[in-house]
Amino acid sequence: MTICMTVLVKGGPVQVLRRINPLCSYIRNHVPCEEKKVYVAFKPSIISQLDKRTVAEWTRVCNSFYANLGTDLDVYVQFLDQNQVSSETIDLQQFSEDSLSQEDSPRKTDRLYKRVCMGGTFDRLHAGHKILLSTALLRTEECLTVGVTGIELLGKKTLPELIEPLPDRINGVKQFLDIVNRNVEQNVVEIKDPFGPAIVDPTLECIVGSAETEKGCISVNKKRLEAGMSELDVHIIQLVQDTNRQGAYEEEKISSSSGRTRLLGHRLRETRKPWDKTIGPYIIGLTGGSASGKTSIGKKLQLLGAGLVDCDKLGHVAYLPGSPTLQKLVQEFGNQILSEDGTVNRRVLGGIVFSDRSKLDRLNEIVWPEIARMAMDKADQLWKSGCQIVILDAAVLLEAGWDQTCHEIWVCVIPRDEAIQRIVERDCKTSDEAAKRIDSQMSNVDRSKVANTMFCSLWDKEVTQKQVEVAWNRLKVEIGLD
């Protein structure tokens, strides 16, 4: 259910600004705890009062609403009077006036333009995005062009694996524009380079950006001049401080990056299958690339009470002398893989299989089923000893198909550059060797597509510990163990 509120305005946007703080407090206090989406309209409507003299003031009104309410509520300031039947009417005159904060100096961009453009990632639309979009809309008379960052440009973002798919981000922008209802043409498109439509459309007049993208706006104008087009007027908004910041590792401003870090440890997808606690443990497959912190996170979960099965170590046990698996390996690759003591010479075997993909596949066909059998035996032993939740710690969990035995998959990710640095320091490898190791593995993006929960050990140990505790405590409640 959406809460709709209509504010009766007498005297224009200045009167709203004089009462913005008590008005926002009223709205916050009158929204039921279970509701988060709030539509706020004005009567007379913003559009009916909007002209070049009031655009700056209405921009301040919208920005104030989103800055004051947007971190707690999914609020939308509507430009037209939507005539919602269930709308609550609020008489602005009931609130006492505050003194107006000092206004910014008038800017040449505080006016109306026929065609305006802007761009951004727009991942999980937040208050900062809404301020940016509203600021652009208020200056647009005919068409607003919004460029949404394509996947090729997301590599340097924090936790790019958790960024919403491009169609979802484009739809999020369109839905916001429809709800706000400015009655202008919308041109929401993917951008595959840092400039997008801004350097190819000669009809554009203004570009709206934030303090952190101002340099990009300047670069756009350089490109336009080189192409023989006129420069765009540049309107820059200030960044909004995040009042819900949860740690020094998060950005001070409201950002999608901070929003994504807050997803770590939380449920991203529903469980893969139901759990019957009478026949076996609740099995979590824990996986991640080299140096992702997977082993450390597995041990943290063990300390919290989970049973832990180290599938990577089982891989060494699977072909000990006398085992059927070792016999199969000798039949396949010859006695040359054996050391004098009868154990597998891993260096020799590695030289054989890593130079021929077909031989690596054959090795996996022999070894992986045996590891899976041993892992499930160990999980059953842990369950019988009292562990209701068992972690299968396995680097190749997904590649080997062991995820089929799991109730859910928990994935550990780390940025590529950080993983390379960790491998170099830990394993005394060169950067090239570390990079080749990472590139030979499943990507973070592919792992994240099946993740029920994700972790990232990029920051201090305490941050990782908090992620693990959030996931563990949540899961216990969900499956009835708390």
Question: What characteristics describe this protein?
Answer:
five-stranded parallel β-sheet, 482 residues, 17 helices, alpha/beta
Gap between N and C termini, in Å? Answer: 31 Å
Order of strands across the main sheet: 7-6-5-8-9
Assign an overall shape: elongated
> What is the rounded Rg?
28 Å
Helical amount: 25-40%
Question: How many helical elements?
Answer: 17
Q: How many β-strand runs?
A: 14
**Low-confidence parts:** none
Overall mean pLDDT:
92
What structural class is derived from the secondary structure elements?
Answer: alpha/beta
Largest sheet: 5 strands, parallel
How much strand content do the residues show? 15-25%
Describe the structure.
The longest helix has 28 residues, at 357-384. The protein has a five-stranded parallel beta sheet with strand order 7-6-5-8-9, with helices on both faces. It is elongated, with a radius of gyration of 28 Å. α5 links the parallel β5 (113-120) and β6 (140-149). The chain has helices at 13-18, 20-29, 46-49, 55-69, 127-138, 166-180, 214-226, 256-261, 294-304, 311-317, 324-333, 346-353, 357-384, 416-427, 431-439, 444-448, 461-478; strands at 3-8, 37-43, 74-77, 88-91, 113-120, 140-149, 185-191, 206-210, 233-237, 282-288, 307-310, 389-393, 408-413, 453-456. The protein starts with a strand and ends with a helix. By secondary structure, it is an alpha/beta fold. The mean pLDDT is 92.
